[in-house]
Amino acid sequence: MSATIKPLVGKAGLTLLQIALAFVILLPFFWMVSVSLKPPTEPFAIPARLWPQNPTLDNYVTAFRPEFRTYFVNSLIVSLSTVAITVGLALPAAYSFTRAQTRLVFAIMGLVVAAQMFPASAIIIPIYKMMKGAGLLNTYVSLVIAYVTITLPVAIWMLRGFLARLPIELDEAAAIDGAGPLRTFIAIIVPLCRPGIVATAVFVLIVTWQEFLFALSFTSTRDMRTLPVGMNDFIGQYGIRYGELMASSVLISLPVVAVFFLLQRQFVAGVTAGAVKG
């Protein structure tokens, strides 16, 4: 094989592999959209059809009912509040971990890493008892506290990886110019780590938007449910309304997909930067 043909063959093979991988990843999403457009009898038709024979939007009309809008508002409030609090706490914490090189800081960072090893199901009972004792069950506050608990360690670790790339000479130059630590952090460090902030915020948003276990355990009334819990309305004792369930799944996925595509450059830049060092 000649030297000019070999790179072309390798590039073609890599392209085919990428197409095959994309097909495997996107097939469940395509099937979800397909079922959401099918009439009630078509999901069980034999032979099965990948695309509906008689597409309809009735499932979307049924799914987008007043309860769905309530669930959407609840998810939006809880998710945005969690993103704001988590990033607001993780950013100064990660900055201090990259600048203060002491044994105590290393020990605390070790605890942060250890906190990531516990699954959410292992801490839900203690948090539930705390929320019950404080009278916060079935409120936004209980969900936000729970979500901050499970996202903050990962957010600190992600931002630390990005901030570790910023040279300490920036802080020293700012100090020479008369800027204090707080002004240096706000005026210099925060603007430079914007891609890392965006990547962390998108990660926290995705985690909280789709979280089910805490939302199911901490809410008891219909008007406090979030979207993942609200989807249970289509799962009954004697059957599952697959068309409406898939239509609601598509509607739930659209906001996160839209946010990701709008911020994908910053997200990729932040994740890549955080993976280089730290």
What does this structure look like?
Residues 274-278 have low confidence and may be disordered. The chain has 278 residues and is an all-alpha fold. It has 13 helices and no strands. The chain has two domains: 1-56; 63-276, Orthogonal Bundle (MetI-like fold). The longest helix is centred in the first third of the chain and has 34 residues, at 66-99. The radius of gyration is 23 Å and the shape is globular.
Radius of gyration: 23 Å
Any idea how many domains? 2
Report helical residue fraction: over 70%
Q: CATH homologous superfamily of the largest domain, by name?
A: MetI-like
Mean pLDDT: 83
- Strand percentage, roughly? under 5%
CATH architecture of the largest domain: Orthogonal Bundle
- Name the helix and strand elements from N-terminus to C-terminus, one letter apiece: HHHHHHHHHHHHH
**N- to C-terminal separation?**
43 Å
Flag low-confidence runs: 274-278
* CATH topology name of the largest domain: MetI-like fold
